[in-house]
User: What shape does this take?
Amino acid sequence: MSDVNQNNNRDQKVREFVSLLTSQQARIYSYILSLVPNFNDADDILQDTTNLMWEKFDEFTLGTDFLAWARRIAYYLVLEHYRSKKRENAFYYDEQLIRKLDQSSDKLSDSSKDYLTHLKGCVGKLKQQDRKLLKLRYFENCKAKEMACRYGCSIQYIYRNISRIHQLLLACIQKQTTLKDTP
Amino acid sequence: MSLDLLQQKQIMDLLVLSLEGEAAEEDRRQLGAILDASPEAREYYLRAVTMAECIRKMEWEAEELETADRLGSLNDDLWAALAREEKTAEAIVPERPEGDLPVRPLKAAVCPAPRKINKLSLVTLIVSSAALIFLFVLIQITPPDVRQEVATLADSLQAKWSDASIKKGQRFLTSSGDILLQEGFAQLLFDNNAQVTVEGPAKFEILSEDRIRLHYGHLYSTVPAEAIGFSVATHNALVIDLGTEFGVGVDMEGNTELHVNRGKTMLVSGEEEDKTGIEVTRGLARKVAALTSQLTEIPCDEKQFVRAINSRNRMIWRGQPQLSLADLVGGGNGWGTGQSEIGIDPLTGKRVSFRGVDREGTGDYVPLASDPYIDGVFVPDGKTPQVVSSEGHIFEECPETNNVFFAEIINGSGRQISQTIVEQPICQLGGRVYGTPDYPALFMHANLGITFDLDAIRADLPQQTIERFTADAGLSSDITRPGNAEIRVLVDGEVRFTARVNDPQQVVRIDVPLKPAERFLTVLTTDGGDEDHPDVAGERSTDSDWCIFGGPSLELDSEGRFEE
Assistant: This one.
């Protein structure tokens, strides 16, 4: 094959991969985060997953379920992540729990779009100070430790408030989703 | 089986810690065990994870930022609160146990504006009139700053400016001429964290980063330690802050008045060769006559000046020491803006016209998400763990009741009910009729509960500390049949006051101290445990339990805010 043809094929492969990845990356990340509930670790595993997917992209048949394929790869990287944790004597989720979460996540794989739709409206219903806290943490990227110093309180107190706000938002979103589904 | 509130809270608490990388091994182990054991827990957890990811990547669009602006710009309002807190904060303390510490407006990592001269050092050299005059002259001959931005319009309320382009968030420049506030109120925040509240009509000019000239009108300055030396100039006087709160007024004749509420100031007055300077301290006031510059002592009027405003809740605070919880129930800001004879329905959390008819509670805590200061309401029944806050605080010792309530939680006397039942006005305690503008009241016929969010109140009153909750309480002295009820006050779910009231002549005094770390104040009334006969008229356990809280107030104080 000539160099030109090889380049064209590679470019085509890149375009196909990028297109598929772009459309599914959010779902892949949600899946990883559900199995490894830690933003930093999930970010790392997503990167590893993306790299491995690219390496193995020749094994993927176009037209088949890209998301399912990506989740399989991510699944095994998650297992590997927890094996390394076990070697460090740190607590890890065992494979049985990971399998249960994997099965449960199938039912909710499309929920993130709905959640985003309702989230802004629900955030708007929060009390002002709760909205401020959320914005500081997730928009200004102010860390809890910094906020704790500024508030003059414990980090745990900050997290309790973040957790409380998350609970309120989830209840609000659930309500909106239920109303939407009710005939 | 669906998860209850506490189970959801437990999962969410552990998840948030885990997502942030702050979960201890025991936390991760606990979360794993919960998820392993229950498919409902796994479903809730997965929804929570999905939502957490959505929050993280949510785009804060312009409309959300504008919404924040309407409610109080994140930058300006938070800046104001942060700045005040930062500058009066003590040294950063190590982590303390949960629930033991205040949640205050955030502190910004603010660096004070760089100073050209060390004003504090200069001020401490003032030991004689000569030194004082030197200071005055130095200030006068210091080369004027080049035009630069030095202050922000942090908030305004009912404001009408001669320059219609002035809007909240506006940056003010030095040496840019007179600014005329024709009516209303404006709150300026200087970059050195000095705060000035102006009441129109007023004309003023910003001279420098720490000087403002008042031609006429009223202004009130709150000056934290790092802004010491901030000064207010009039045509015949100069007030130099020494770490204080003070009000300056100039009337149309040109007389200047200085009233000092906190700390101390230096007042310089007099003609060129005869300038004098005196220290004016807390509780004192002086008048400088327009034509002669003669100095006279006048009574200090603490309420003359508007000290703070809040356009979000239309608050105009002149230093009133008490905030009315009854007014909050009426939808007000605590200073008399609420609607009287209005009730909050404990089943829905909505404000409604009230009625007197027995209804059954649901056992649920109803959050008032849209109310700025009221966290939630409920009908206590004691048969299930009684949640008393949106954070899930449980009132463990809630007595069992008949789960019936007769009327809504009312700001006022509930006289509409009295007109349909008795001829005499109800809501009397110790011979005084409550439910009037002078004697506000919360009318809470058993069984009712309401929780106030003290942190939300603190956030809108950053200059104040909430010292205590006080009220007179009892049964209306004009009921025709003897009642038997219990009154309780909880703080973060824990009982701080209990009283049984069964004598219409009995008035109990409630005085519950409050700490900065304490967030939720709950007031509740329960039937006294009488036998309940639902089928017999007049023999329900709640009958005649006309509980009243007369003058329910949060006592405020700003004593500890400044060093004297």
In short: Chain A touches chain B through 67 residues (CB under 8 Å). Chain A has a mean pLDDT of 83.
